[in-house]
Design a protein that fits this description.
Distance between the termini: 27 Å
Order of helices and strands: EEEEEEEEHHHEEEHEHHEHHEHHEHEHHE
Largest sheet: 8 strands, antiparallel
Oligomer: single chain
Number of strands: 17
Shape: globular
Structural class: alpha/beta
Length: about 425
């Protein structure tokens, strides 16, 4: 439901978008606020700056400086005092809109605004405490799953030795028992509350939850199927949209990362079993099609492993997301990375149901990559060289039914 009204107390018309899963407040002075079903702030936009708030109370600010030679966004995390000020500003705006709301406004409009207005700084602090009792930190998701409901069937990464990856260095690998998983599912549902309606897919975390033995994996999908209403297998497009509107708390599908060196052992039949129980897409960190670069990165999978996983998954009706790193390997591996990545991606038989993600490599502190590159005399590519590398790979790709090709910027992730 949309509701628009004007008041001398407001800078122009106010628009309220009241959806089953979220509430959006738009003011004419370039000010937009969005909240989940519990009234938690999701995003705030004002003056060209976007603020994204995570469930752990991290807030990411993003903006684009309109200066010559600065085409990229700037991003930073807000400090604690800045987050408090943001919450204060949001509450002030809500108070202003509530005060101007006409007496004959739809009751739902007032109820939504009043609910959001209960979220003061102590409420968000308590929400963060609850988040930390339910989840280990969620370091990364694929961009199309940023609004998924994360279920941590596993914690950490079972390999955790790639030289460039820092995401799971803080925890040992652990597979939750059936009792642990079921308790976790209930804790997640209780924590999200009405906010769960915004999260129409499930992301099975952490790094490679599908690595667990098939019998245990069957128990995981059984537990999820008992806890949630899942869309029928094979449903897509208009039929899936209709199903989602008719099942406002339903889950459209289950998604997960899958590494190629263990994933290659999964048969088409195993993927078919998981697809029938909700698995819709797996995301494979191929990084590169250039075998010498993969070896340098201490990555145990090779291009043939990626082909095997993609072939088996797609034959079973499970779509794939293939992740390519840009700039990794610097000048030493640049040409081989382009040539072989193009060749491998072209060999995968991808179509419009799949995704190819281009993710610019970020050399994070605490990994071995920097020391390895320095020891090998490798020079990092400049921003212009990275963009040229992306363009070269794109130019070489050939598809009968092109997959979606999108940017995957890990610096913009927040859960």
């Amino acid at each position: 439901m949309h509701y628009t009204f004007s008041s001398p107390a407001l800078p122009g018309a106010a628009q309220l978008n009241l959806r089953p899963e979220a509430t959006t407040v738009m003011l004419a002075n370039d000010h937009v606020l969005s909240f989940d079903g519990e009234g938690r702030l999701i995003t705030a936009y004002r003056g060209g700056h976007l603020f994204k708030r995570g469930l752990d109370q991290r807030v990411l600010e993003k903006w684009r400086p309109w200066a010559i030679g600065r085409p990229e966004h700037i991003r930073r995390d807000l400090a604690e005092d800045e987050k408090r000020r943001l919450v204060g500003d949001v509450l002030a705006t809500l108070g202003q809109v509530l005060g101007a709301l006409p007496a004959d406004a739809p009751p739902a409009a007032r109820a939504r605004l009043e609910r959001a207005a209960t979220w003061d700084e102590p409420a968000y602090a308590e929400d963060r405490r609850r988040f930390q009792t339910v989840y280990k930190p969620v370091p990364i998701l694929p961009p199309d799953q940023y609004l998924a409901m994360v279920l941590q069937a596993t914690e950490g990464c079972h390999y955790n030795q790639c030289s460039f990856c820092h995401f799971y260095r803080d925890r040992p690998f652990h597979v939750k028992s059936d009792a642990e998983l079921r308790a976790h599912i209930e804790a997640v549902r209780g924590f999200l509350g009405a906010g769960a309606r915004l999260r129409r897919t499930i992301f099975l975390a952490d790094a490679n939850a599908l690595v667990m033995p098939e019998r245990r994996l069957a128990g995981v999908f059984e537990a999820i199927g008992q806890a949630f209403e899942l869309a029928p297998a094979g449903m897509r497009g208009a039929a899936l949209s209709r199903w989602k509107s008719e099942h406002p708390q339903g889950i459209a599908g289950i998604y997960s990362f899958l590494d190629a060196f263990t994933g290659k052992r999964k048969t088409e039949g195993e993927f078919e079993y998981l697809a029938a129980r909700g698995l819709r897409r797996v995301y494979i960190g191929m990084e590169s099609g250039h075998a010498p670069l993969l070896a340098f990165l201490r990555k145990p999978s090779m291009p043939a492993d990626v082909r095997a996983v993609v072939r088996a998954a797609r034959a079973a009706g499970v779509h794939v997301g293939v992740i390519v790193l840009l700039g990794i390997g610097g000048d030493r591996y640049a040409q081989g990375h382009v040539d072989d990545t193009v060749a491998v991606v072209n060999s995968l038989g991808l179509d419009s149901r799949d995704i190819v993600y281009f993710s610019e490599f970020v050399d994070e502190p605490g990994t071995e990559y920097g020391a390895d590159a320095a020891s090998a005399g490798i020079r990092a590519l400049t921003g212009a060289q990275v963009r040229a590398q992306a363009a070269a790979i794109r130019a070489g790709l050939r598809f009968e039914q092109p997959p979606k090709i999108a940017t995957y910027d890990i610096r913009e992730f927040i859960y």
